[in-house]
């Protein structure tokens, strides 16, 4: 199906009147909203919205001030993403992947004095480069293959769910190195403009259709020894991944909270346009309860991250919040569909798109079964290093 996408204004033409990332995100909502349904209809990437994000100074919002960025903390960044989701779910989710790839090294620089990440963060601030995540399919087990060659490695593999891929500059990823003593994973940044790196046009999905979460093919990319950021054992939690899990998921799931809030607002407006009966009161009340549960779960995730103590406990708290938020957000949008009535079943109403978009909350790590096993092992005092 085709749709006409009206180009957004150039980023340099947008005023920078708001001070906080959340306030600047709110200024973008009319522009994001105007494009959202067209991208959904056309299965097209929200590329022009990245110009808006850059123009609003949101790309570098999470870089520490000392490195040239906005210095926003995790709660501020989560609020920014939640608000962006009110305008366009796909833009918010794709941008959450860049945002957390900035927030994690920023946390390491500020709390661990990790000097190797400084150059990357300075580039984000100065050049507004876009960082990509290779997604949940490239999780603790790792994916792809690293072959040892003189001076480094040759990398082969396909990275799935690479949200924002058409706009990306660097793919933060890894590859599995087969060794006699056991498999390891090396981590590195793959330049998206390298001839050995190619975005495949594969993203055709139920929801979040504008995220550009295509497969990325890496075919023989050379990664020098000095370009490897760290090496870990495959299939086992590493301290860096505990940091990633603690920092990234409160940001990613801020998007799904925003989707649920937007669906709630639309359903309330639809119900008010009619004369609400007793059934509408019950549906509205249940919807409000579910949304409140999602907000409480998200605050729990943020509080776990704000302890600044990544580890097994913080991962357990964040992933418990992730499970509760996903369930409550999905239920909120389901109830919004019912409250809005039969009109919500039609695409033009907009709630149907949000119903599809919120389903993505099911699929990020830790998915329900491993999350429950992780929480159960923590409760029983059993090892969790290989539960993912």
From TrEMBL:
Chain ranges passing through the membrane: 240-259
Needed cofactors: FAD
Region of interest (Disordered), residue spans: 1-20
Domain Acyl-CoA dehydrogenase/oxidase N-terminal positions: 35-107
Keyword Flavoprotein (UniProt): yes
Statement: the UniProt record of this protein carries the keyword Lyase: no
Family annotation (Pfam families): Acyl-CoA_dh_1 (PF00441), Acyl-CoA_dh_N (PF02771)
Domain Acyl-CoA dehydrogenase/oxidase C-terminal: 252-362
Keywords attached to this entry: FAD, Flavoprotein, Membrane, Transmembrane, Transmembrane helix
Coiled coil (UniProt feature): none
InterPro entries recorded: Acyl-CoA_Oxase/DH_mid-dom_sf (IPR046373), AcylCo_DH-like_C (IPR036250), AcylCo_DH/oxidase_C (IPR009075), AcylCoA_DH/ox_N (IPR013786), AcylCoA_DH/ox_N_sf (IPR037069), AcylCoA_DH/oxidase_NM_dom_sf (IPR009100)
Assigned protein family: Belongs to the acyl-CoA dehydrogenase family.
Protein name in UniProt: Acyl-CoA dehydrogenase family protein
Native species: Roseomonas populi
